[in-house]
Fold these 2 entries.
Entry 1:
Amino acid sequence: MDQQPKHIAVAGATGAVGIEILECLEHRRFPVSELTLLASARSAGKKLTFRGKEITVKELTPDSFEGVDIALFSAGGEISREFAPHAIAAGAVVVDNSSAFRLDEGVPLVVPEVNPEDAKQHNGLIANPNCTTIVTLVALNPMHLAFGGVKSIIASSYQAVSGSGAQGIAELEEQTIALAKGLTMPERNVYPHQIVSNVIPQVDAFQENGYTKEEMKMHYEGQKILHSPNLKASVTCVRVPVMRSHAVSVTAVFNEQPCVEAARESIAAAEGVRVLDDPFADEPLFPTPLDCTNKDDCLVGRIRKDLVLENALTFWVVGDQVRKGAALNAVQIAELL
């Protein structure tokens, strides 16, 4: 990594991912010469702490990026579409966490443990993939390389309410209190159904093919990240009453015959992912969302030969979608720059 300190801007600095980005920059000792924190007019004036110093948040405007080297955007797709061009015009490289540019031709879509070389092909803009795609591919890529490439994926995700932001967390907390005290359930503002003591098989809007936008992201983003245009993914995304960290059950079909032990070895040798997989221990070992919350690495377990499909393995992976699924991945892309 070029250790010359950089002027970093964070757009959406007061949001959950923005705050996590600051923690990652500090924890990983990113060489920051100057830090500009940007948010909406409503949040301007707030103070956030970075490396022991308070920094005042400024209003995001088209003129916010003078002298900025890298701009980390996590303020939503509309904001990215409006302000990313201004950052690029000012000479910054934008790393965008929204879905606005992910599938645009000429915009690299990067998971640093999977396709770091793609980051070098940018024209001022690099996209951060969807959180579920990141968590899945960090685990899948070692097997993809070991077994001649992945042909197809069947997956079900179990997605925490923090994926809906602070409002999703608040709704689960309010409903949990009401359930515990026997009170009337509060009015729903985030989810179409009660989330406490329930699961909701809808994350994002439904498309004409019956899949949601969230479910199609792994299909299209997986093709782009793995440079596998024929890769197919059939995904069901489910919102579950978990505060933080997503889990994904994956069945992957490979071009070559896979081996469970070789799969474990390939994952153990990879960056950003660890194996927790011993079903025959006195206390069977497998990862849960709590095991990876506030942690950098994704965790993999339940690796087994699929009983239905040829050349297929089934496995379970968990990852902190606020951290590795968003903030950390963006900071790692900045490190690649």
Entry 2:
Amino acid sequence: MNVTLLGWSLTLLGILVVILVDLWMVDRGEPKEFSFRQAGAWVAFYIALAVTFGVCLLLVAGGTYSAQFFAGYLTEYSLSVDNLFIFYVIMARFAVPRANQHKVLLVGILIALLMRGAFIIVGGAALARFEWLFYLFGVFLIWTALGLLRGGGGDEEFKENVVLRWVQRVLPATGEYYRDRLTVRVDGRRLVTPMLIVMVAIGSTDLLFALDSIPAIFGLTKQSYLVFTANAFALMGLRQLYFLLGGLLDRLVYLTKGLAFILAFIGVKLILDAAHATGFEQVPQVPIWLSLATIGAAMLVTTVASLLKARHDAAAEAGEAVSSDVEDAGRTRR
């Protein structure tokens, strides 16, 4: 797949236009809370946008590249859902007013997209030159999957990274929010507000998540263009997903296990592909249609199983509450 400089430029311009329109439509005027209905409409819009892009790839570049994009998009989107846990923690850690959270997320995710773009360029160039790196990526993904199964995801805890500590040390900040402003002048000094700090926290923390998601998508496609666009569409819809899911994330109890399965599956696929590319042609390869079907099925099963368990647990708690009320009523009568 040969994407010209013009193709890259138009793609980047289109993504930038969509982000700016999103920012203008949602954040114009006074800061306001993001409603559930708004979130649902925007999530549907971004999913439709990704599907439209994939269909255009099908018409222009063929079914193989279209399937690679959809597999990468599903993988990045599912892994991005896991990011939302730490985003909730960051919002609570910096006490971000709910009316300002959507702007924080949009700018933070834009920072994350720029950083991921640089990561993809470096990773794509290295992988094109050193095919043996796919072995390392495969082992790393399997190791990450085992860490998730052991409970090492670390989603419930937020630790300030090097970039965030540097920003907090270099830039003098106020101790309070001034609506959605990033800087203010106090006593003649220009200070940044916590809005800017938390944006940096969101963007830089997301790069840590990219350490497993970027190798994972390179296991599905070697095309840097598809890797970047899949990441872009997944990240652009992440802000609205944050408000849409809300407390639902606590009910996705099997999410970590589903993500661990996906990472392990792609890790094995990477190792098989690397073996095939380095001379072991008898090693079987996993076709892209099987990867797409496996990733989709894993997320579907994970979500359905999580919601069924949440419903079962709620019914059990309700039953225990009724039994307790009956016992209390019986003791009162005696």
